[in-house]
Design brief:
By secondary structure, this protein is of the alpha+beta class. It has one domain: L-amino peptidase D-ALA esterase/amidase (4-Layer Sandwich). The chain is about 25% helix and about 30% strand. It contains 6 helices and 11 strands.
Length: about 280
């Protein structure tokens, strides 16, 4: 079944030659700046993409997220930081929005610079108004060693608003998010502070409750954006729906784990977990 993005979001997914001929450059953009929240790796050696996105989403708003797959841009020094900023600025220029409203995630091999000639050519071909609506394409575009793409969707009860999520990750999955990227989009109208609080609780009881191989990565990124195009919804109902999407993605990540299945650890949440004072993943 084909999964489409919620109202107010469009995507551009393509290959720009990061490593091979598979899709490796994904941009999802909202019609306007909207509510957003992010949670990221707790590693003290976070990659440039994490550092930039933490800073940009601190005001709980964004307009677009760009994901580079097949190269994590980690352990690449000042050059890697400069290159990550160049990507953010290039996407912002193409979309005619502020660089501070662009979030970035990167996943793949470490210790290797982006092939910037290829990246610049890709940025030059990024349309000012992407027209893609397929969440399935987005899920495939962020894959690295995943054997299957991962998507989930839910309609929020009592409304026409939807939540759609994608994720990638098969190894280095330990509570604190590990080598994981997950993006969630909704057309519900949710205030920034409400979205942030709900997102923290949902991640704490889904992605922060799975361990595949006890390894933690430097690139873990979880982002949610709310376009507001479908109108307001009941917050408790929204949280239930967001949890359903995140839990589905969490299970899909665990199912695709790059380890013997008998070594998987997945701790199902209990009601008391909703009251834990601090999530295992850091918020922005």
């Amino acid at each position: 079944m084909t999964v489409s993005l919620p109202l107010g979001f469009r995507a551009h997914v393509t290959n720009i030659g990061i490593k091979d001929t598979s899709d490796d450059f994904t941009v999802v953009v909202a019609d306007t700046t909207c509510s957003a929240a992010g949670m990221f790796t707790q590693s003290r050696f976070a990659g440039p993409s994490v550092v930039i996105s933490r800073e940009h989403v601190a005001n709980l708003q964004a307009q677009a997220v760009v994901v580079v797959s097949k190269n994590a841009n980690v352990a690449t020094g000042n050059e890697g930081i400069t290159n990550a900023h160049e990507i953010v600025n290039g996407v912002a220029t193409a979309l005619t929005c502020s660089p501070s409203d662009i979030l970035i995630a990167s996943t793949g091999v470490i210790g290797r610079q982006y092939p910037m000639d290829n990246v610049r050519a890709g940025l030059a071909s990024l349309p000012s108004q992407p027209q893609g609506t397929s969440a399935d394409d987005v899920a495939r575009g962020i894959m690295t060693t995943d054997t299957v793409s991962k998507t989930a969707e839910c309609t929020i009860a009592g409304s026409s608003a939807r939540i759609v999520g994608v994720a990638k990750g098969v190894g280095m999955i330990e509570p604190n998010m590990a080598t994981l990227i997950t993006l969630m989009f909704t057309d519900a109208d949710i205030a920034p502070a409400d979205l942030n609080n709900i997102f923290q609780r949902v991640i704490a009881t889904t992605f922060n409750c799975v361990s595949v191989d006890t390894d933690t990565s430097t690139s873990d990124t979880a982002i949610v954006m709310a376009s507001g195009k479908a109108g307001s919804v009941d917050l408790a109902t929204f949280e239930t729906a967001l949890h359903e999407v995140a839990l589905s993605l969490t299970k899909q990540v665990a199912r695709d784990a790059r380890v013997p299945k008998n070594s998987l650890k997945f701790v199902l949440t209990v009601p008391a977990a909703l009251n834990r004072p601090k999530p295992l993943l850091k918020q922005s």
